[in-house]
Design brief:
Number of helices: 2
Distance between the termini: 32 Å
Helix content: 10-25%
Number of strands: 4
């Protein structure tokens, strides 16, 4: 068994992430950015819809930006690695 991390740690640029968002998500993200929020990453799990994750301006909590542009501030089905969870 191999004990090394196989996931690639390449971070996408803001433009690459934005290109994957719907128009509604982009409009909401622009409003959120006015308050210091940031699009952190987009999870693309096999056989599932992409999930856009936004972190707040204080870097203390995260939300899911749904395809219709609404925010889920308490995503129950999203599991993050410890290194991604805001302290």
């Amino acid at each position: 068994m191999v004990d090394r991390e196989r996931r690639q740690h390449r971070t996408a640029s803001g433009a690459e992430l934005r290109a994957q968002l719907t128009e509604d998500q982009l409009l909401t993200l622009q409003e959120l950015e006015r308050f210091g929020c940031e699009l952190k990453f987009i999870r693309r799990a096999p056989f599932q819809d992409p999930v856009a994750v936004v972190i707040d301006g204080d870097r203390k909590s995260f939300s899911v930006l749904k395809p219709d542009g609404t925010l889920d501030n308490d995503p129950q089905d999203l599991k993050l690695r410890d290194s991604l969870v805001p302290a």
